[in-house]
Inverse folding.
């Protein structure tokens, strides 16, 4: 990843820049107080930049952002925004996706070391070898993949449209689904498709939210609804618990992060509902948005240790360094970006671009 500055990204003076240090878990040394918030807004205005934050970011980063959302929604906002500089508070593949959809804009990721264990589950070379084993297969990739993997993909998908994308492929065509095994299992269950091969990748954060914890929490909170992200190791357990009658089926909702927010708003608006508490199975950053969307509902994590250390690298100090120094700029080779964009566009043509992580 290059760190050469675009001509439009010259360094800016900031009184907070000198306090930024580089520690073992990323940049540190700046507190997210009012003075910091004012300085962030000043630097953004000087750069003419817009600030986007993923749902899993720290609360202070979400609160200062111009837009908060899932990775695909934010990438589409980046493309339609009037600003020429995008500051993307998320992880690397997300900033890459924004760059793919906005090739002429400068896209900054406040710490280029913010990776993703799921996107790293499969490399372009591994996908090339898998395709050679199944030369007639259609490759469907979740958006949590690198630009190189998207460039070798026929159709991208998100967690809310994965079933629809796979269902649009003729039944006699073999499908290679990657990289998430839990989302793949969900798609196989929903479509009943036997010619669907699933890559054995996983996100370490979501895989750590397991069925045992979910079952124990469901027993302790018999009236709570369950919001489960399909990347979770417990998605299968949630459906199993519902099938066994341990949790009423209508209380289990398998939802993308965008779907969780919609469901939270509905629950908050339905004053007559019995259930005022929800167990949430996804990364804990999501709770901040859910609680903002429906303050009257009690949202609790299934696993309060499910925190993504890559997302949390984007903190107050990283944001000051990014805005003052004009770093880290994300680049994608034009031919890779063209092919990756085609796989995202095919998904949008199928309809319901939906939302992913
Ligand atoms: S929570 Fe998992 S899938 Fe999401 S960015 Fe972190 S490592 Fe990747």
């Amino acid at each position: 990843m290059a760190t050469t500055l675009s001509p439009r990204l010259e360094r800016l003076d900031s009184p907070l820049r000198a306090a930024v240090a580089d520690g073992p878990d990323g940049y540190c040394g700046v507190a997210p107080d009012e003075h910091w918030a004012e300085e962030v807004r000043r630097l953004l205005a000087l750069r003419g930049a817009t600030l986007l934050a993923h749902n899993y970011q720290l609360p202070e980063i979400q609160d200062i952002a111009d837009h908060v959302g899932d990775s695909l929604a934010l990438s589409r906002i980046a493309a339609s925004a009037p600003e020429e500089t995008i500051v993307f508070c998320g992880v690397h593949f997300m900033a890459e996706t924004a760059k793919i959809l906005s090739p002429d804009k400068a896209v900054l990721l406040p710490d280029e070391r913010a990776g993703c264990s799921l996107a790293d589950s499969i490399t372009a070379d591994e996908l090339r070898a898998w395709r050679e084993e199944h030369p007639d297969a259609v490759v469907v990739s979740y958006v949590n993949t690198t630009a190189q993997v998207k460039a070798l993909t026929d159709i991208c998908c998100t967690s809310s449209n994965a079933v629809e994308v796979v269902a649009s492929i003729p039944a006699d065509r073999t499908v290679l689904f990657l990289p998430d095994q839990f989302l793949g299992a969900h798609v196989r269950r929903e479509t009943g498709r036997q010619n669907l091969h699933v890559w054995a990748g996983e996100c370490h954060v979501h895989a750590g939210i397991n069925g045992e914890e979910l079952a124990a929490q469901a027993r302790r909170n018999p009236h709570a609804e369950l919001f489960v992200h399909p990347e979770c190791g417990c998605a299968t357990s949630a459906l199993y618990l519902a099938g066994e009658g341990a949790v009423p089926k209508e209380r289990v909702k398998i939802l993308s992060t965008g779907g969780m927010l919609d469901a939270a708003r509905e629950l908050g608006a339905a004053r007559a509902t019995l259930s005022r508490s929800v167990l949430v199975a996804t990364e804990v950053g999501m709770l901040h948005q859910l609680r903002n969307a429906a303050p009257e509902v009690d949202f609790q994590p299934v696993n309060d240790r499910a925190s993504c250390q890559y997302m949390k690298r984007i903190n107050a100090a990283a944001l000051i360094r990014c805005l003052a120094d004009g770093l880290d700029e994300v680049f994608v080779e034009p031919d890779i970006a063209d092919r990756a964009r085609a796989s995202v566009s095919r998904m949008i043509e199928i309809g319901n671009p939906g939302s992913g992580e």
About this structure: The longest strand covers residues 49-54. The mean pLDDT is 91.
